[in-house]
Prior knowledge:
With 487 residues, the protein is mostly beta strands. The protein is built from six helices and 30 strands.
Amino acid sequence: MKLKFLLFFIGLGTWIVFFNNSCTKITPTDIGTDLLPAVDNVHTFETYLRVYADNYLMKDSSVINYTDDHALGIIEDDPGFGKTEAEIYFGIVPGTAAQYPFENADSIIAMDSVVLSLAYTGLYGDSNSVQQFNVFEIEDPAFKDSTGYPVSHPGFATAFNELGSATVSLNTLKDEKTIVVKSDTQVVSNLLRIPLDTNLGKRFAAYDTNTVYVSSNRDSAFQRVFNGLAIKAAESSPGKAALTYYSLYNENTKLTCYFRIKRNGATDTLAVDFNVYIIPGTYNAYNANIVRRTPLHGYAALDTAIGVMDAEELYLQSSPGSYAILNIPGLDTLQNSIIHRAELEFSPIDQPGNEIYTTPDLLFIDMVDSANQRFLTVPDDFNYSFTNYTYDYTTFGGYLKNDRFFFNLTRYVQNKVTKDSKNYTLRLSAPETTLDYYIYPKESGSLITASRVAFRINARIAKGRTIVGGGSHPLQPMRLRIIYSKI
């Protein structure tokens, strides 16, 4: 009798070890490698579950902070998604503190030029595009929120007459440029330079020293007389097929006044910089990056009460764009088993414009908790580090590999079949930032954060889009692939 019990517990322990090892996360290489048992239909099986999906427009609340890259430009007609427009707004202040920046107002004999420089960081779309960028003065008194504006915010009112403009071949933005001030020659690259009306420099030079430049609250005093700059791409641009990106958090982003003065009977040439207005004591600025989308396709409004849909093609556009809602009803009838791998897989569909308008860097999937009107991270499969504010996307998935996307849902499916946990509706998107309630790994007790957490997914706003096969696509269907063993 004792021997029987001993054999029973040895066998039970062996099964538990096998079960736990089978449910640990596996590095996401192609299914069928040596990391997984071979599918022999005797001990190990493979099945595909049908996915039902539909398209929706994103009600996006992303805020582009001062340190983020800002988008600027127009994509007039993406064949799959339509039009995109991006504008940049920011305040400026004198680069020198507590002093009149122009040396001596009475000594100025000429304002030679005024130039706005923006530090260029990259491009999305057709690099052969030629666009005209116009600069305006912000006149809207509402532009003063230091906490940032969502990308969906309406544009701010500006003066009717532009301060200046430049028509630029976008593929030249990274080229070297030579700037000469007196005997000082500087070679710079990755810079957009827009000449402005010299009257703006004269206006800055005419501001009262005591009330504007030497005031104890100089920055806010300057903001009261000059509210900031708006940069927009002109509808008359000859080639509107790209967005460009710029860093406000860069010393090369500034407005510079070049002027001459008379000093001791001699003429001298000087330059004065006006920098992005940073809120004192913070990393915030008066800035906004407004992005407008005009989609060509009719997406449904988000309403989980309308039931399961079945789109043949899913349109996934980066923030502020579109997303898909997914349902996998087959999970409710999947029998308890050892899940070696569960992977949501789908592929881009060959469409006009794909060669120019590329896929997002990362897609993201989370769960729709309709009962509590919130979104949750996928438990156990999505693990976030609150130390370095990142997650391992190479394990979780969401990137394009061998011309397909995947998401690792192994532990989510294991919990479903083992504990009969809820079969959630899923949301598939390409956000710049997503605001979810985070479910900690089960080792932490599966606690849910008390408030939403902002997870950065893609570094640049409005960059990337893709059209992928939905569950009903005849050639490239989206599906949940499961490799399992029976218990």
